[in-house]
Amino acid sequence: MRITPNPEGVGARVEGVDLSQPLSGGDFRTILRALGERGVLCFPGQSLDAGQLSAFGSRFGELEHNVANSFHAPGRPEVMVLSNMKEDGKPVGLNDAGQGWHTDMSYSEEIALANVLHAKRVPVRDGKPLGDTQFRDMHAAYEGLPAEVRERLEGRTAIHDFNKFWEMMRTRPGSGRAPLTEEQRRRKPPVSQPIFRVHPVTGRRVLYCNPGYAVRIEGMEPAESDAMLEFLFKHQSREEYLYSHKWTPGDVLMWDNIATTHNAVADYGPDEPRYILRVQVMATLDYARLAA
């Protein structure tokens, strides 16, 4: 296995491993450590079916079954289809582009370790791939906070609400999303999360507060909370924390949902096909022990 760090400071390219085959214990540990240290891993030139992607992802923890949509690979409710394509006039997948910056599952008491996406078709225009997935490094964002802000927020928590993100997406042109049902709201109630979290692999602090789901800081007056959240969201958007991944068919992209935020760029049209398989790995294992 060869791991080549990206020059941006976030991410790495991992070659010399076939993800369609079961991982050895050593390869698993190497990938887990690299995920914690680099935040985003690209495994190019892979060819996995839905079952093989599920098997790879489940090596790192239990896989989420998304309750809010029905776009899954046949017989694989844990494997979501992300696509702008249609068959017989009907969507074949969830079009996730343009969702804005967020961290998946921060709205859940049981948070996610990682996303794993496998590109089958990538939109291209004039020879250039479209639909980048962008990332921001929350290890670096925490370390870059002014000392007085770190002291002020130490031990504090923020409320994260799935409905904030969902309602934002409903306002996008052509969304077609219905409001969450009462049953969906009951299954995704607002939760409290620490603003600073110790990463389970690196042991370092990360800024765990994203604009997609965080709605208020507990124990602060509304105006003070709003101002602090605005500061945190602006701070984490600094250019030095950014990495933008340009997709190639065959890429398997795995990213750390504890130490990054991400955004899918909506720069392609309905006639520029995109088809990606996705699993979400919940943080259900003792990663500090497994990475040791």
Automatic annotation (TrEMBL):
GO terms for molecular function: dioxygenase activity. InterPro entries: AtsK-like, TauD-like_sf, TauD/TfdA-like. Residues 4-279 form the TauD/TfdA-like domain. It comes from the Bacteria. Keywords: Dioxygenase, Iron, Metal-binding, Oxidoreductase. Pfam families: TauD. Belongs to the TfdA dioxygenase family. This is Taurine dioxygenase. It comes from Craurococcus roseus.
